[in-house]
Automatic annotation (TrEMBL):
Residue stretches spanning the membrane: 433-456
Residues binding ATP: 518
UniProt lineage: Eukaryota, Viridiplantae, Streptophyta, Embryophyta, Tracheophyta
Protein name (Swiss-Prot/TrEMBL): Receptor-like serine/threonine-protein kinase
Residue ranges the record marks as coiled coil: none
Species whose genome carries this gene: Populus trichocarpa
Ranges for domain Bulb-type lectin: 23-147
Domain annotation Protein kinase: ranges: 490-775
Molecular function GO labels: ATP binding; protein serine kinase activity; protein serine/threonine kinase activity
PROSITE patterns, sorted: BULB_LECTIN (PS50927), PAN (PS50948), PROTEIN_KINASE_ATP (PS00107), PROTEIN_KINASE_DOM (PS50011), PROTEIN_KINASE_ST (PS00108)
Catalytic activity: L-seryl-[protein] + ATP = O-phospho-L-seryl-[protein] + ADP + H(+); L-threonyl-[protein] + ATP = O-phospho-L-threonyl-[protein] + ADP + H(+)
PANTHER family associated with the record: NON-SPECIFIC SERINE_THREONINE PROTEIN KINASE, RECEPTOR-LIKE SERINE/THREONINE-PROTEIN KINASE SD1-8
Domain Apple: 332-414
Length: 808
């Protein structure tokens, strides 16, 4: 027997891997050794021997054939590397794929374990999907059933009870060692199935439980939950993209995409990114708010209070919540009920009980109510099928707010809590009723509605991207006579300044309130459009870092906006003034930076709309009496609908020095162009110097260029405004410079999102190294700015620039 095997081995070694037959398959009398490759029919994947990174160990693996940097998607002998170059793979007489490290070893380093009918031939084939299959009369083995750390499109992740396999991912030990590491991604099939990322046996991240709405985007993932099979499988919707999901050796799950034209892998999605992505971040019986980075984010479910109030108030939510002590005795007596918690990812569901309501016609609430240990229920629709009732009998863990693909959770509370909730909701209902009934407000609503409708109609005709269905505002309509009186008939003494679309006046209303009035110039037809835009946009926004619009006036051809009056005027009037800048100490500057970042974050993603400001600059940041920053001037803002994140315009408007390269050159704008402008502001605030005013002659560097030079020479702190003397926190200042440089990077995709910016500013976290920024050098002065801004009665040559650039 042994002799027979050895003989077979030697005879096999004598045979060359035949290269004239098909490249994608391995037949029973062939071997693959060092230098040989199996290449899938469409040239997509290759199988052969490789060494990861600088390691000299040899492994048999599968990688993308056409991608220059080796991207391995599967490894056979993960834990048993081959030393030297004598490894070879063949199909043995029992039909198994067998890998030997060298010919005098008795045991293979890796093999499949299948049984085929005696005398049947077997053949291995590498498919264009990246799957290595072993076929006899049918497929008897496939690498897709034994994934390593990569999930490819078409690969199932999860259980097949009939075949008795559980397909899960396990991380590599390190970037250079594909051995099985600590992390794994696998399904927990109990209750309502869900996926977990484990560190050893400890869950660290959890997916939402089944059912998922099919996730659409670049790819589509389907979650199958049958009695025999429970798995998730993803497919790419656009063929021009390659997709791989990886569980890396640090426990991160990432989806990476690549287009031939991109020439590199791009991160499409990643988890965990933030603290709250971790499983059970806020402990039991709590909710975790995903959108709001600056807040603590943890809150107790209705009827619960923090278990450890001290830790809780110190922003440590891991202890979770317990039922309010006062009420515990009455939880399961008469009168109790359920309070709805809206828009959440449902709690950990492995112990939850699932009932198909369309079969049993069960009433979910009744079901939960009659069992005292039932703590919550949810009603779930399976797309295209039936309704189900999910009930929980254990601790509620890992409830997170999420607006997409979320559910309502009904949490059991006692009679007190129920009464309290009812009272609160009645209060707010009464308020709403009152508001609807009050005739003057109703009239205002009508006017605004009409206004919005006409405007939308006009926009829709132009095929523009804007679509707003409802506005909720408390805008006041001012009569022209009121405004004339308030400004003393627009007396020059009351003029605060002048912008691209008109002048700004200070006004005193009859009730003693000071306001700022923006009077749009009658001549500019553009102004009317901007005016409507601004009313619509601002009316829908409410944030402490945005200037507040109080009302508007349209009468006798006048168009005016009435804002809250901010006595301290704009940030640039402090920053670039020799004496006033002394009022901005480091703490104030840092708070202003964070405030501006929060305001932009709100515009980009926290408000109900997605808004790109397009003209962020220091003169558009107003300061209130406490020096809190407020973003103003939404005349050029763009509202994005749904999932659109980027647009292009043929009319480039904005201010040189603050505009990103892709916007100036191609008219492309996105949230990332606002990030660029923010980066410029940040550097200006730290340095007290203007980006487009900063002169260094040889070479003629911009402020960005100068900061970049200092950064590379590790002298970045030299840029800090000398008027701060030594009175600043060097670590914080350095962090600001680094974030500023990240924001002004040349490639928009390299720039962080505002969410990431706010996170980096407010947390101790690792910050990436910036790549070379855009606009290092100052252009010669053959590109004069258009002078339009007047501040403090003085003309300054700068700021508002309108340019027309035709694209395409
Ligand atoms: C071995 O391979 C050759 C082609 O290279 C084929 O013609 C022959 O039938 C194969 N023999 C067996 C036993 O599979
Ligand atoms: C191979 O499979 C058989 C059953 O099909 C099983 O009993 C045996 O333990 C397996 N061997 C290995 C090494 O996995
Ligand atoms: C397999 O082949 C051997 C030798 O050719 C033969 O003796 C045996 O009967 C075959 N077995 C089956 C099940 O066909
Ligand atoms: C994984 O667990 C180990 C040991 O418990 C721990 O040291 C490590 O920090 C954990 N890593 C992560 C990412 O959770
Ligand atoms: C309540 O539900 C739990 C979990 O399903 C079960 O073990 C228990 O027997 C039920 N109690 C009653 C009174 O139905």
């Amino acid at each position: 027997m042994e002799a027979e095997k050895l003989f077979l081995l030697f005879s096999l070694l004598m045979l060359q891997f035949s290269s004239c037959t098909s490249h994608d398959s391995l037949k029973m009398n062939q071997t693959i050794k060092e230098g040989d490759l199996l290449i899938s029919e469409g040239n997509i994947f290759a199988l052969g021997f490789f060494s990861p990174g600088s390691s000299s160990n040899r492994y048999l693996g599968i990688w993308y054939h056409k991608i220059p940097e080796q991207t391995v998607v599967w490894v056979a002998n993960r834990n048993d590397p081959i030393i030297g170059s004598l490894g070879f793979l063949f199909i043995d007489q029992y039909g198994n794929l067998v890998l030997y490290g060298n010919d005098d070893q008795k045991l293979p380093v890796w093999s499949t374990n299948v049984s085929v009918e005696e005398n049947d031939t077997c053949e291995a084939q590498l498919m264009d999907s990246g799957n290595l299959i072993l076929v006899s009369r049918k497929t008897v083995w496939q690498s897709f059933d034994y994934p390593t750390n990569i999930l490819l499109p078409g690969m199932k992740l999860g259980l097949d009870r009939k075949l008795g396999i559980d397909r899960f991912l396990t991380s590599w030990r390190s970037a250079e060692d594909p051995g099985i590491g600590d992390f794994s991604v696998r399904i927990n099939p109990n209750g309502s199935p869900q996926f977990f990322v484990y560190n050893g046996t400890k869950p660290i991240i959890r997916s939402r439980p089944w059912p998922w709405r099919n996730q659409m985007g670049l790819y589509k993932c389907t979650f199958v939950n049958d009695p025999d099979e429970k798995y998730c499988v993803c497919t790419v919707l656009d063929d021009s993209y390659l997709l791989r999901s990886i569980l890396d050796h640090s426990g991160h799950v990432k989806a990476l995409t690549r287009r031939e034209s991109d020439g590199q892998w791009k991160e499409y999605w990643k988890s965990p990114q933030f603290q709250w992505d971790y499983y059970g971040h806020c402990g039991a019986y709590s909710t975790c708010e995903l959108a709001n980075l600056n807040e603590f984010g943890c809150a107790c479910l209705p009827g619960f209070e923090p278990k450890y109030p001290l830790e809780w108030s110190a922003r440590d939510g891991s202890g979770g919540c317990v039922r309010k002590r006062l009420h515990t005795s009455s939880v399961c007596q008469h009168g109790e009920g359920f309070v709805k918690v809206e828009n959440v990812i449902l709690p950990e569901s492995s112990a939850a009980v699932w009932v198909d309501m369309s079969k049993s016609l069960a009433d979910c609430e009744v079901q939960c109510k009659r069992n005292c240990s039932c703590s919550a229920y949810a009603i779930i629709a399976i797309p295209g099928k039936n309704y189900g009732c999910l009930t929980w009998y254990k601790e509620l863990v890992d409830v997170k707010y999420d607006r997409s693909d979320s559910h309502d959770l009904y949490v059991r509370v006692d009679a007190y809590e129920l009464a309290d909730t009812k009272r609160k909701s009645n209060d707010s209902r009464e308020k709403t009723m009152l508001a609807v009934l009050a005739p003057s407000i109703a009239l205002l609503w009508f006017l605004i509605g009409l206004f919005a409708y006409l405007w939308l109609k006009k926009r829709a005709k132009k095929g523009n991207e804007l679509q707003v269905n409802s506005t909720s505002t408390e805008l006041e309509y001012f009569k022209l006579s009121t405004i004339t009186a308030a400004t003393n008939d627009f007396a020059p003494a009351n003029k605060l300044g002048q912008g691209g679309f008109g002048s700004v006046y200070k006004g005193l209303l009859p009730n003693g309130m000071e306001v700022a009035i923006k009077r749009l110039s009658r001549s500019s037809g553009q102004g009317a459009e901007e005016f409507k835009n601004e009313v619509m946009v601002i009316a829908m926004l409410q944030h402490r870092n945005l200037v507040k619009l109080l009302g508007y006036c349209t009468q006798d051809g006048e168009q005016m906006l009435i804002y809250e009056y901010l006595p301290n005027k704009s940030l640039d009037s402090f920053l670039f003034d020799e004496s006033r800048r002394l009022l901005l100490d480091w703490r104030k500057r840092f708070d202003i930076i964070v405030g501006i970042a929060r305001g932009i974050l709100y515009l980009h993603q926290d408000s109900r709309l997605r808004i790109i400001h397009r003209d962020l600059k220091c003169s558009n940041i107003l300061l209130d009496a406490d020096m809190n920053p407020k973003i103003s001037d939404f005349g050029m803002a763009k509202i994005f609908e749904g999932n659109r994140t980027e647009d292009r315009t043929t009319r480039v408007v904005g201010t040189y020095g603050y505009m990103s390269p892709e916007y100036v050159v191609f008219g492309n704008f996105s949230a990332k162009s606002d990030v660029f402008s923010f980066g410029v502001m940040l550097l200006e605030i730290v340095s007290g110097r203007k980006n487009n005013r900063f002169y260094q002659q040889n070479p003629p560097l911009t402020l960005i260029g100068y900061v970049w030079e200092l950064w590379r020479e590790e002298k970045a702190l030299e840029i800090v405004d000398p008027s701060l003397t030594e009175l600043y926190d060097p670590r914080e200042a350095l962090k600001c410079v680094q974030i500023g440089l990240l924001c002004v990077q040349e490639d928009a995709t390299d720039r962080p999102s505002m969410l990431a910016v706010v996170f980096m500013l407010s947390n101790e976290t690792e910050i990436p190294s910036p790549k070379q920024p855009a606009f290092l050098f100052r252009k010669s002065d053959n590109n004069p700015d258009i002078a339009l801004d007047v501040e403090d009665g003085q003309c300054s040559l700068n700021e508002v620039t309108i340019t027309e650039i035709a694209c395409r």
